[in-house]
Amino acid sequence: MFEQFSIEAPSSLFNQDLQHKIDNKTKPLGALGVLESLAFQLGRIQTSLTVDVSKPKMIVFAGDHGVVAQGVSLYPQEVTPQMVMNFLHGGAAVSVFCAQHKVPLQVVDVGVNAELEDHPLLAKRKVAFATNDFSQAPAMTSQALSLAIQAGVAEVDNALDNGVNLLMFGEMGIGNTCVSSCMMTALMGIDPEQSAGRGTGLDEGGVSKKAQVIARSLKRAEEQTGLPMAMWDAQTLAEQVGGFEILAMAGAMLQSAQRKVAFVVDGFICSVALLFAQKVAPHVREYAIFAHQSNEKAHKSLLDALHAEPILALDLRLGEGSGAILSYPIIQSAALFLNNMASFESAGVSDGDNI
Ligand SMILES: Cc1cc2ncn([C@H]3O[C@H](COP(=O)(O)O)[C@@H](O)[C@H]3O)c2cc1C
Ligand SMILES: O=C(O)c1cccnc1
Fold this sequence. Notes:
Blueprint: H1 15-23, H2 33-46, E1 56-63, H3 79-88, H4 93-100, E2 105-111, E3 122-124, H5 142-161, E4 166-172, H6 176-188, H7 192-195, H8 204-225, H9 234-241, H10 244-258, E5 263-265, H11 268-280, E6 288-290, H12 299-305, H13 322-340, H14 344-347
Parallel strand pairs: 1-2, 1-4, 2-3, 4-5, 5-6
Helix pairs in contact: 1-2, 2-13, 4-13, 5-10, 6-8, 6-11, 10-11
């Protein structure tokens, strides 16, 4: 299933030169903080002392989830196709922010529970109209899993073949915080109480019901596979409790890393996609830029598990790729300081080792 991915760590060839270049900019050592680690990471990924993030693209994967039948979201499933139309017509948060930064937006239907009309911004790669309700049966077949992964791979290939040099990923799918929490529980071996959060705005009772649905679903899957979840491989985990848009995004992240291009991770759901991708190929993590820390409860512990240093913390709890696009100006600034800032030598400024 995942044999196509053999992801190498970014090159270390320029590590010393990159650090030297960053340290010799006209600023106190380390003073540009997170921008310095971003510039270093981009330089490693692009194997260059100058970096280019001038051709970004936002790809939003959309899909529906059978498990919403268990009452795990505040909103009805119809909102998924309605929001996809809103993305296409420029009215969603991610659309507005992409327009602000002149970043092209592509929406990919991998499993929306509605027939969608053709639209230039829409890629139609529907695997099915929704996953199965995984509290009752496996979420998907291995064939469906493969189609979801390949949808992500194909969209990334398409973008990179057209010169894109920075990818940003987002998602839309009512119920997908439940799916993400369930995947996180299985991937990290934690209690569902620790991974379930409010999503679109559940109250405490709703969150504890969501945790119960997750616990029941994982028990069902353990019984059906005859294996404790700690022993599931990536394929089993995805088939049992995955979501189409989350797995398409994982495929996209893996392909982006395979082709040595950095990608921006949005909030909680995207971080779970990365955690899954990391189970397939650990080095994928090194190509990820973390946009922000979401207000979804489990995002902080997930970011810690990924050793991630997010750029922003704005109390967002939206998804769609909204945090990813908001972080783009900072990523641009990281590239610009590395490329264009003067060095102590070129600007004739005295540096600081005279003590
Ligand atoms: C109008 C609206 C726009 C959204 N845009 C993103 N999401 C976000 O909320 C959903 C996940 O939350 P839950 O698991 O609680 O359903 C996802 O679709 C996510 O992208 C939205 C949700 C709504 C209602
Ligand atoms: O952080 C996220 O990705 C998120 C949080 C709440 C709702 N939808 C998405």
